[in-house]
Amino acid sequence: DNDSCCGASAAAPVKLEYTPQGKIEKLPNGTDCCEFWFLSVPSSLACSSSPACPTDRRRAPPIKQNKTDFVGAPTKAALVMVPDIFGIHEFKQSTQVADRLAAAVPGLGVAQPDVFRGAPWKMSEFPPTDKAKFMAFIGAHPYDAENVKGDMKQAFESLEARAAGGEEGGGGGLKRLSLGFCWGALMACEANADALTRVAASAGCHPTFFGREAEIGAKLRGPVILVPTKGDPGEAVVEAAKKASLPFASECVVAPFPDQVHGFMAARGDYSDAKVREAAGAAVGAVAEFFAKVIG
Predict the structure, then answer these.
(1) DSSP 8-class letter at 74
(2) Cα(9)–Cα(176) distance, rounded to whole angstroms?
(3) DSSP H helical segments within the chain, as ranges?
(4) 188, 223 in Cβ contact below 8 A?
(5) Among 1, 120, 241, 268, which one is least packed by beta carbons within 10 Å?
(6) CA separation for the pair 22, 275 (Å, rounded)
(7) β-strands 35-40, 108-113: how paired?
(8) How wide is the angle at C-alpha 144 spanned by C-alphas 191 and 204, nearest 5°?
(9) What Cα–Cα distance (Å) separates residue 173 from each residue in 2, 107, 179, 222, 262?
């Protein structure tokens, strides 16, 4: 259970009033407008002796010319999270999820890229009244080297560099993990299916696959945990993995929350509701347990 692998706090209710533990920094070797959260640095890493080094080792020092100021043992895994269509800046629910995962899973470093470059879909326009406009927005952010795939690649490499004490090309022994919310779950699973991205396992929280469940499930290269609400896809993806005789299909997990609204862990999650906070905490606990087993 969660107590044995991840600590009792992993599945505790999330908080209404919360200050994110990470900070926004520029991607080190890509478009300088792309900001992302380094939400945690595992406690096995120590900072340099600089007076400016944060006393909380989960807060990352600034990147300097593609170098980091870390010394010590490498992390066990790097998790890159993809937000829902509402991005990472205005709504902080997903950053609390990231902090909780980082605290619960030993050796886990987390980054969440701003894949929308500061221009996500507006909550005031949801549900979308203009379907063509909405699908054009989705189509403008594909999983390719110029967009989400490229941002995820740089985020993985940056976490790996930190784990290797700032050495470029180091940290190759880390297991790569991906997680996405809603539309982001599709991106996380695309990364899982991409041999070049080398993702070992993925999580999809209240996933949206736009009817591509069978395709995604059949081409996965590692196990997934899906956290669907009522009407969200989940079992169909796992069944497709089993039908394709993927060797890890039995390791896939579906953790349904049928009483919650789509988006309850991210921007649409009403954390003023105690039941939503409890459910979000339980979902984080399930994901933490899954990733802890993958990391070993």
Answers:
(1) P
(2) 24
(3) 2-5, 93-104, 131-139, 148-163, 183-193, 213-219, 235-243, 274-295
(4) no
(5) 1
(6) 26
(7) antiparallel
(8) 30
(9) 25, 12, 19, 17, 35
Query: How many C-beta atoms surround the C-beta of residue 205 within 10 A?
Result: 33
Length of the chain: 296
Which pair of tokens denotes residue 21?
């533990």
DSSP tag of 25: E
Strands 35-40 and 24-26 come out as antiparallel
pLDDT at residue 10 in the model: 64
Rounded to the nearest 5 degrees, what angle is found at the Cα of 114, between the Cα atoms of 112 and 118?
155
Per-residue tokens: 135: 């699908």
> What is the residue whose two structure tokens read 């802890």?
292
**Run of H or E including 232:** none
| pTM given for the model | 0.82
Element (H, E) at 156: helix 148-163
Per-residue confidence (pLDDT) for residue 4, from 0 to 100: 45
d(CA 13, CA 274): 8
Q: What is the pLDDT of residues 167-194, one digit of tens each?
A: 555 556 889 999 999 999 999 999 999 9
pLDDT band at 2 (very low <50, low <70, confident <90, very high): very low
- 182 in Cβ contact with 84 (< 8 Å): yes
